[in-house]
């Protein structure tokens, strides 16, 4: 009687271990850590932006809506005070033209920011350490609303024109 009981306990333990490993793999897949750990065919490029809005590390990098990489890091240039964004692009066999443009967009009205690459027409392609020179900063919703209110309110042109007394 002791032998079948032991076999059941070993089988239950084995299935429990498989379940824990499956949950671990699911957690890695959902968090995106597994892609950054297994991506060996990748290269890094940089881009300078005037304003990155709410862009965060690990934000997607896309071309035509297709995920091709992610934002690795964001730092500040102490001289020009521009944001330096380092992008990790997944496939080093993909020939993205050197004159491509990088734009920061928002997913939906209040969604997170991501970078969209618009391929150019140059014969040379981006490679490890390249810099994307054509960049378009994020549109900040609060700034746009502020400009709209300013325009509707008449702006500073009407405030500076005071009636003068005629002699």
Task: List the topology elements.
Blueprint: H1 2-31, H2 33-38, E1 43-49, E2 60-63, E3 66-76, E4 83-89, E5 101-106, E6 113-118, E7 131-132, E8 134-136, H3 141-152, H4 155-160
Parallel strand pairs: 1-7, 2-6, 5-8
Antiparallel strand pairs: 1-4, 2-3, 3-4, 5-6
Protein traits:
4 helices; 167 residues; alpha/beta; elongated; 8-stranded mixed β-sheet
* Element-level helix/strand string: HHEEEEEEEEHH
**Range of strand content:** 25-35%
Number of domains: 2
Structural class: alpha/beta
Helix content: 25-40%
**Total strand segments:** 8
- The helix tally amounts to 4
Main beta sheet:
8 strands, mixed
Q: State the low-pLDDT regions, or none.
A: none
Report a brief summary of the structure.
The protein has 167 residues and is an alpha/beta fold. The protein has helices at residues 2-31, 33-38, 141-152, 155-160, and strands at residues 43-49, 60-63, 66-76, 83-89, 101-106, 113-118, 131-132, 134-136. Helices cover 32% and strands 28% of the residues.
Kindly describe this structure.
The structure is a single chain. This protein is of the alpha/beta class. The chain has two domains: 2-34; 41-139. The protein has helices spanning 2-31, 33-38, 141-152, 155-160, and strands at residues 43-49, 60-63, 66-76, 83-89, 101-106, 113-118, 131-132, 134-136. It has an eight-stranded mixed beta sheet, with no helix packed on it. The longest helix is centred in the N-terminal third of the chain and has 30 residues, at 2-31. The N and C termini lie far apart (119 Å). The model has no long low-confidence stretch (mean pLDDT 86).
């Amino acid at each position: 009687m002791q032998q079948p009981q032991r076999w059941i306990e070993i089988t239950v333990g084995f299935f429990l271990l498989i379940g824990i490993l499956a949950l671990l793999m699911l957690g890695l897949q959902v968090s995106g850590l597994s892609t950054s750990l297994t991506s060996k065919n990748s290269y890094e490029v940089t881009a300078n932006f005037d304003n990155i809005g709410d862009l965060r590390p690990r934000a997607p990098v896309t071309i035509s809506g297709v995920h091709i990489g992610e934002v690795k890091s964001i730092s500040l240039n102490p001289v020009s005070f521009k944001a330096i964004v380092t992008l990790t692009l997944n496939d080093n066999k993909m020939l993205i033209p050197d004159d491509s443009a990088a734009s920061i967009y928002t997913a939906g009205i209040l969604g997170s920011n991501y970078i969209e690459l618009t391929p150019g027409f140059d014969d040379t392609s981006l490679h490890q350490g390249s810099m994307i020179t054509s960049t378009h900063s994020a549109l900040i919703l609060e700034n746009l609303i502020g400009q709209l209110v300013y325009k509707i309110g008449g702006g500073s042109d009407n405030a500076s024109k005071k009636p003068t007394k005629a002699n």
